[in-house]
Amino acid sequence: LVAFTQPKLLAGRRVVITAGPTSEKIDPVRVITNRSSGKTGYAIARAAHEAGAQVVLVSGPTALPAPHGVRRVDVESAADMHAAVMAGARDADLFIAVAAVADWHVANASGNKLKKNASNQPPALQFAPNPDILAEVARLPDGPWCVGFAAETENLHEHAQAKRQRKGVPLLVGNLAQDSMGGDTTTFVLFDDQGIEELPKLSKTDAARRLIKAIAARLPRKA
Ligand code: CTP
Ligand code: CA
């Protein structure tokens, strides 16, 4: 019931959200991925929908059901996620990048399953950088208002402020990976040009609702 009584702070807004990990192929049966349950991104997608937004959730592989009322686009690799986001970003009012995107893909991925050979040498994987989806969307002329995330293991404030500026986004949400990863609670720290706002430790559902309120308060009015 609480879900239906949330204020419609994002009524009429189009929102694109990324969530979950990406999965980068080594060969047809092996991948390299990031640790992400998708719970935070999905909670934010639900909170945005509750707030009246039209939500597209671009999701890497997770074990979670699609949130009610949200259009989910399933992707695997960072390249897939990049393509799905760029297809919708230009028309969106708001982009929230929550996904744990792999920074690299395997440049010499094999079309066939790699086999152990007689000498039992592991394969020499070569990595190539993935596109930075958030930075690219943030640079779009007339693009959506952008919110980034940073899960750090140390020096959260320093890393998060630097990341906010490097990505060119007005709002960046930091959390400590060890406080949040895989669990049902999280502690958000909001970084914007006014400074820092620390939210208390909350369920991911409540943290997501607080974040949507903080975003709605900052989002420029519709022209
Ligand atoms: N992000 C993205 N595309 C990428 C990498 C990151 O959209 N290829 C987004 C994430 O969804 C997150 C933000 O950028 O919102 C920060 O991601 P993070 O991995 O913390 O930052 P990086 O710039 O990749 O720096 P590093 O991994 O070295 O900390
Ligand atoms: Ca990264």
Sum this structure up briefly:
By secondary structure, this protein is an alpha/beta fold.
Keywords:
single chain; 223 residues; alpha/beta; 8-stranded mixed β-sheet; two-stranded antiparallel ribbon; 12 strands; globular; binds cytidine-5'-triphosphate; binds calcium ion; phosphopantothenoylcysteine decarboxylase activity
Overview of the structural elements:
- This protein has 223 residues and is of the alpha/beta class.
- It has six helices and twelve strands.
- It has helices at residues 39-50, 78-89, 133-139, 156-167, 177-180, 204-218, and strands at residues 14-19, 23-27, 30-33, 54-59, 71-74, 94-97, 104-106, 127-129, 145-152, 171-176, 185-192, 195-203.
- Strands 5-4-1-6-9-10-11-12 form an eight-stranded mixed sheet, with helices on both faces. Strands 2-3 form a two-stranded antiparallel sheet. A two-stranded antiparallel sheet has the order 7-8.
- Strand 2 and strand 3 (30-33) form a beta hairpin.
- Helix 1 (39-50) crosses helix 6 (204-218).
- The longest helix has 15 residues, at 204-218.
- The model has no long low-confidence stretch (mean pLDDT 95).
- Bound molecules: cytidine-5'-triphosphate and calcium ion (CA).
- Residues 18, 78, 97, 99, 101, 103, 130, 132-134, 148-150, 163 line the site of cytidine-5'-triphosphate (CTP).
- Cytidine-5'-triphosphate binds next to helix 3 and strand 9.
